[in-house]
User: Which sequence fits this backbone?
């Protein structure tokens, strides 16, 4: 039995690797492990198992001036309209501009740019209406004596009314007058357009500032400027209503405006006796 045990031990020792063999096997194992990891790292994974980084997110675009104005307007509390006290004033009409009474029941001005456009249009029509409110009755009062003094024919419609669309008589006006009127209007409009595009004017916050002040009436204090702008708008709005009244009154009654309200066109001492 001892001989068998010794023979088995010799056979087992013969099949066991030596230290040298074990070192070689360990080195081979390390090499195989490193190569497998490298192979896995260079092998393309399937689409499902592929790990990708999320795409870069672009920053949001900067808001425009109108969007910033809309955000600031949305955060303000609504105020009552001064012109229509039973309604809320539109958000754009915050009362800071001269003549802003919160009157826009049809909500025509939806953006700050539209509001600026309508303000510019209002001041232009106001100035034309103020000229017409004075020129209309003066033409009816002075055209005939001036024409007789200069030896020219009278161009009043029906020899008494100022020429207009409703009164007629526009065909009797000389083409030179029409050319001068249209040329002057075009020159003023081109000048205003040039000033708006190429001249930065801090005084044009409410529109219509053409820097025409030969007598120096326009003040330098902001409070007095606002008061003068408000006065101009009030007079202009009244003049626009008056000119519409002129046209309707003469069309319906057939008599000159100067005869309907003589107190405005005759010296006050004529009514004293």
Assistant:
């Amino acid at each position: 039995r001892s001989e068998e045990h010794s023979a088995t031990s010799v056979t087992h020792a013969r099949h066991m690797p030596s230290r040298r063999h074990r070192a070689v096997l360990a080195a081979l194992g390390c090499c195989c492990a490193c190569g497998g990891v490298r192979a896995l790292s260079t092998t393309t994974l399937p689409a499902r198992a592929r790990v990708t980084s999320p795409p870069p997110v672009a920053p949001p675009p900067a808001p425009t001036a109108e969007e910033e104005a809309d955000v600031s307007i949305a955060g303000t509390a609504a105020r009552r309209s001064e012109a229509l006290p039973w309604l809320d004033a539109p958000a754009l009409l915050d009362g800071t501009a001269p003549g802003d009474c919160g009157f826009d029941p049809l909500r025509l001005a939806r953006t700050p740019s539209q509001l600026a456009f309508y303000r510019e249009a209002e001041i232009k029509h106001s100035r034309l209406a103020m000229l017409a409110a004075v020129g209309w009755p003066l033409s009816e009062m002075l055209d005939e004596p001036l024409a007789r003094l200069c030896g020219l024919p009278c161009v009043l419609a029906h020899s008494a009314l100022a020429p207009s669309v409703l009164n007629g008589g526009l065909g009797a006006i000389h083409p030179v007058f029409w050319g001068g009127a249209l040329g002057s209007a075009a020159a003023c409009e081109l000048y205003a357009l040039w000033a708006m595009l190429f001249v930065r004017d801090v005084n044009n916050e409410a529109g219509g500032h053409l820097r025409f002040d030969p007598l120096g009436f326009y003040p330098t204090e902001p409070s007095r400027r606002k008061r003068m702008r408000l006065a101009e708008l009030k007079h202009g709005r009244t003049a626009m209503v008056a000119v519409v009244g002129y046209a309707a009154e003469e069309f319906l009654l057939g008599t000159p405006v100067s005869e309907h309200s003589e107190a405005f066109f005759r010296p006050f001492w004529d009514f004293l006796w």
In short: The helical segments are 2-15, 19-42, 65-74, 112-150, 175-198, 222-253, 257-260. The mean pLDDT is 75.
